[in-house]
Amino acid sequence: MSAKPMIRHQDRKQDEIQMQALRKVGSDARRWSRIALAAVLSVGLMTMASAGSPAAEPGRIEAELAAVRAQLDELLDREAIRQLAVSYAHFARTRSIDALVALYSSDAVLDVPGNMGTTAGARSGHEAIRETLRVDLPRADPWPFLHQHYIEMLGHDRARGVLYFELRLGVENLRVTHIGSYVDEYVREDGVWKFRSRKLAAIPVSAAAIPGN
Question: What pTM value is reported for the model?
Fold first, then answer.
């Protein structure tokens, strides 16, 4: 078998893997929606069961249901934002450029420091972000590991957060080369949570600082 057919086969296999990952994200979101709906119905039934009591007040049931729905909506939004960050790390590891770019809003900005082996500064829009990822990901072979993720909701369609991480690089025998954070802004675009902006801050970790090196 020549090299070109083998490469095309590997590309098709990689595309299938990415599509399976995207379908799983959608499946997880639908599963959480079903859980939320079941919770709303459960609370609603319990609330209506107590409505016949003398203590019941006009409008109380509707108010309680509205409060529960609001809480569940926020939980689902927070989970969607967490999955957004997890998907980003996964697609960075698999170097899936198109899948990564699709996680950004149409007017997104990516801001990276100069100590990550790339040109420092902000990249605005999908094409500028795509070019940065196209150049930087293959030469680093990143293995990102995520830690705590702080999320602050700013309304129905906006949020901001800070995601902490450590980064191992395949070109450095998978040693930890950086620790840092993403300062993010999130926006709901066409019903889907995406990155409105990502500002990367990273601290290089020298090999001498790691025990055993």
Answer: 0.72
